[in-house]
Structures are given as structure tokens and as C-alpha cells.
Amino acid sequence: MDRYSRFLAERTSRMKASEVRELLKLTEGKDVISFAGGLPDPSVFMLDEISEIAVDVIKNKGDKALQYAPTKGVTAFRDTLAKFLSAHNVKVRDYDDIIVTTGSQEAIYLASKIFINKGDLIVVEEPTYLAALNVFNELESRLEPVEIDEEGMKVDLLEDRIKSLSSDNVKVKLVYVNPTCQNPSGTTMSRDRRKHLIELASRYDFLIMEDDPYSYFTFEGEGVEPLKSLDSEGRVIYLGTFSKILAPGLRIGWALGPGELINVIELAKQNVDLHSSTLSQFIAMEAIRRGVVDATIERARGLYRVKRDFMLQELEGRLTWLATWTRPIGGLFVFLSLNYKVDTKKLLHKAVERGVAYVPGGSFFVRKDGSNTMRLNFSYPTLAQIKEGVRRLETVIKEELHVR
Ligand SMILES: Cc1ncc(COP(=O)(O)O)c(C=O)c1O
To answer: I want to staple 358 with a disulfide (CB 3.0 to 4.6 A). Which of 2, 117, 225, 374 is the partner?
Structure first.
């Protein structure tokens, strides 16, 4: 790369290849049980129904489905999506408040791009979603992490932080949260804290980016009300995705927010990809209309619940004295903290040799040292793999600590 470094823009140096990702790439095709990814179980994909839809859409609506589309997305799809969201607890005023994006990752990127100037203060949960952190870093924002516990972000702490920052004349511009079954911790923000966060946004005049891929997969309780539905002042940009409720390969997500802001995101999107795949939008639209999305959610929810229970049971059986972990009410991840000082990033090499992979937790943290933590995914591995993977994990940790 040195050969080309003089050609690269300054911002390129802030795009770092992750060592962990490089190491995990090496596990492909080997007998390594992966708790590392965040992939859906492919058995939840409704293959027959999706292929029927794809054939139908291409044969009967191909003139539109294979054509360019408006940047904000296919209008009929946005209308269908608005109805779908309303039926799933998300308040939508008008379909024109929605822009379709290429996965919610693009929505994070575009929304960040329109808001963040170099040095702007962005609050994130500690730990938080790594790929969002990478975007905020690329845009040279200043990050203020706020710790989470089993009820999500400690909003009281956020309030204290905002007060002390404002006495130094520093203003929070944006709070990024993944409040339901968070990636990586699995925790869900309580209703009181959600209300408090919305109050703070109003009192201290900031916006909230609510990233919500997982609220369809809550296994307990009555379902959680998104921040978006508590927002009466138009301060929440709500991001969602079809990746876990239909298929990630379609690359369809969305941002829902005040129309004026969505129109600015539209301008940013024009510079990136003109619009998201028309064909994928038609498939997702038909999948909603024919009940395939709701059926996928039902399938996945049932399966992931069984897998979560099984992973917790296996961890209980094998790692009780060595670690503590979260007990998520849903989602895809359990977050584990070792009771001893072990660097899980270094340990990953040995774990991979022993045939098990995870994501070391350190990179999800901005300020705190999370080097003794790891993220474990339970949606992708089979039950047999969960059993064997946790056994391998126990072996590696015990070897490292020289205990039996
Ligand atoms: C919290 C969070 N946000 C966004 C994404 C991006 O998902 P996609 O771009 O597939 O919609 C993910 C993916 O795992 C995620 O966990």
C-alpha cells in the first residue's frame, strides 16, 4: 500500500482494516464453530415463497422491477412499508417520511454524513455497534460513550454528562442508540429510560438515531415501544432493515424521520448509489403483502428463543465460575465478561486453533477497557454447535487461566 499512499485522501487513513475480521476470515472452511458473526439462521429464509415472488415480480412486473427507481425508493413499497411498520408498533405519519436504503448500514452512513461535522459531539452507548463507530470515526466526530447496564444506556449519567459538557459550552448533537436487544450486549433499554432520553433530547436540543434491527425478536414481555413512537417533536431518526426479518442478501433497509431530514438524506444518497436495488424492493414489498415477512419473523423468533435458552444453559453449565454474561430478552447476542484479566483478542488465536470463534469485546468500547469481554452470537450456530462451541470455549479459557 505504501506505493499508493501519496494518492490516498486523508480520510482513508481513518478506515482501518480490522485484525479480528482478518483472523476470522482464516476460519472459513475450517472446523471452527463461529459465535462471531451476526448472521440469521439460513433455515429461516422462506426459500419457496421468495423464489415464487422473485419469478412473479420479474415475469409480471419486470418493466418496473428491473428499471431505475426514485432515490427515496419505489413509492408503492414505501407505502406498504409504512403500513407494515405501523402494524409493528412504529408510528409512521406518512410514507414520504421513509427513505429506502441499501441495508441499515447505509442509513447509518447517510444520516451521519448529513449531520456530523468534524469535532461534533456524538453520544454512543458503551459498548456500541462497531460499524457505527467506524462511520463516526471516519467523519471525525468526537465520541462521548455512556455506560449501559441491563436496562440499557444509563440516561441519568447522560444527563450529568450533558450538564457538565454544557458548562464548558460543548453541545451534544446526536445520540446514537440501539435500544432493543443491542448489538453487542443484547440488553434492552427500559421504558422509563426511553422516556427520559426523549425528554433530554427536547430539553438539550439534540437528535436521536435509533438503530433497530432486532425489536422483532423479543421473546419475553409485550414487545417494546421504539423511541420513535415516543417522539412528538421529530427528533428521532429511526433505522430499520429487512436483513433479519426476510434476508440480508436483499440489502434493503430504511430510515424513517421528519420529512425535511429524509429529503436531505435523499440528496446524500444520490451521490452514493442513486437508489437501492429496485428488484429487491419489489421482492420485499410482495413479501410483506403475502405475509412472508411476518412468517419469517415468527419462524426466527421461535428458533432464536430456543437457541438463546440453550446457549445460556450451556454457559451456566460450563462457565459459571469463570465469567458473567447478559441474559437478553431477544435479539442475536450474548455478551460475556471474564471474571479474570484475560485479553480476549489475544485469546482468539488460541480459540480458533481449538475450533471456536467469537468477537473480542474491546473494539465495541470507546473509553472503557473491554478487553476481558466477548460477543457471542446464538442465531447462526446449530444447537449441536452451541453445545460443542461452549465446551471448546471452556477448554480454551481454562487452559489460559491454568485451571481445571
Ligand atoms: C445494530 C446494527 N445496525 C445495523 C446493522 C446493519 O445491518 P444491515 O446493513 O444488514 O441492514 C447491523 C447488522 O448486524 C446491526 O447489528
So the answer is: 374
Q: Which atom of ligand 1 is nearest to the CA of 178?
A: 1
Ligand 1 atom nearest residue 38's Cα: 14
Residue 61: left (phi > 0), alpha (psi -120 to 50), or beta?
alpha
Give the distance (Å) from ligand 1 centre to CA of residue 270: 21
For 176-188, the pLDDT digits (tens) are 999 999 999 999 9
Cell matching residue 162: 450533558
| 179 ligand 1 Cβ < 6 A | no
Question: How far is 166 from 188, CA to CA, in rounded Å?
Answer: 28
What is the tens place of the pLDDT at every residue in 133-189? 999 999 999 999 999 999 999 999 999 999 999 888 899 999 999 999 999 999 999
> How confident is the model over 58-78, as a mean pLDDT?
98
Closest CA to 137 of 112, 162, 157: 112
